[in-house]
Amino acid sequence: MDLASVQNEIERVIVTEEQLQKRLKEIAHHIEVDYKDQDLILVGVLKGAVMAMADLSRHINRHLDMDWMAVSSYGAGTQSSGVVRILKDLDKDILNREVLIIEDILDTGLTLSWLTENLTSRGAKSVNILTVLRKPDAAKVSVNPKYVGFDIPSEFVVGYGLDFNEKYRNLPFIGVLAKHLYS
Ligand code: IMP
Ligand code: MG
């Protein structure tokens, strides 16, 4: 199965590769200004944030640390349960440091509100969020990302780190899966 056939499984592209790269470059420049002379650590949430972390960080022209966490909300499928457990914790101490969480998508916000609270309790000086995508349901929760790539409709999307049953993460754009593949 080659990439051309994988791309044929996408019904509609929501954010193109060019739009993603342009927006991340813009955000990178905001980060350079906003965190000037501060002790910045980017915390990527595995696995979805891998693409954004790789592309964003290469546009940030300053020293920074990168670390990773893997968290999982219980249950599979397309719904968040709100119960979060840590599968892989940070390697580094974040006491008195400026933490910027890098996440693929903000949907119900359950994952990010839990993560923000958890990292704040470790004594970080600040904990902010960059999310590549935000869905409308995010308006219902108290998660306020400092940087948002794109606001998208409330549809299940894949690509650029986002998966459906662990597949499609490697697409360079964000798209909606063809319906016959999940219904
Ligand atoms: P939340 O806790 O509901 O905000 O959801 C966070 C997690 O749910 C994300 O990190 C994704 O792993 C997953 N998720 C939410 N919406 C989508 C989607 O449209 N496609 C793929 N994964 C999604
Ligand atoms: Mg996921």
| Distinct bound molecules | inosinic acid, magnesium ion
In round numbers, the mean pLDDT is 92
Strand order of the biggest β-sheet: 4-3-2-5-6-7
Oligomeric status of the shown chains?
single chain
- Count the helices. How many? 4
Query: Given the helix and strand composition, which structural class is it?
Result: alpha/beta
Q: What Rg is obtained from the alpha carbons, in whole angstroms?
A: 16 Å
Taken in chain order, the helices and strands follow as: HEHEHEEEHEEEE
Please tally the β strands and state the result.
Answer: 9
Termini separation comes to: 21 Å
Low-confidence stretches: none
Shape field:
globular
β-strand percent reads 25-35%
The biggest sheet amounts to: 6 strands, mixed
Helix content: 10-25%
Describe this protein's structure.
- The protein has 183 residues and is an alpha/beta fold.
- It is built from 4 helices and 9 strands; from the N terminus they run αβαβαβββαββββ.
- The two termini are 21 Å apart.
- The protein binds inosinic acid (IMP) and magnesium ion.
- Residues 48, 163 line the site of magnesium ion (MG).
- Magnesium ion binds at residues 48, 163.
Tell me briefly what this model is:
It contains four helices and nine strands.
